[in-house]
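Researcher: Please predict.
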Amino acid sequence: QVQLRESGGGLVQPGASLRLDCATSGRTFSTNVQAWFRRAPGKEREFVARINWANTTTYYGDSVKGRFTIWRDRAKNELYLQMNSLKPEDTAVYYCAADDTGYVDSPSMSEPRAYEYWGQGTQVTVSS
């Protein structure tokens, strides 16, 4: 089993930056791919970013490319999401996810159903 716990959400103004953290515990050696998703009110869960175990390959959703950065610190078992130039449309609950067997290069890893482990989510609100 893998346990994930997000932190770092909050209320910020448009244009601001925020960093989300995801603490990973349990069978951390098996988290082959980790990702961030988000769910805005009334919308389906949306892929934000994913990264492989080796920290060498990343993918981003079109709406966040160039503004968000994902990385992981394997020594600390932490996953991060740096969010810059935040917009009101970035308002959502952000979720950390992990999977044991997927390959980061597979397009299917942009789908929520590809991930076995999920955190409880952290709210990010971008508003003036």
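Model: The mean pLDDT is 94.
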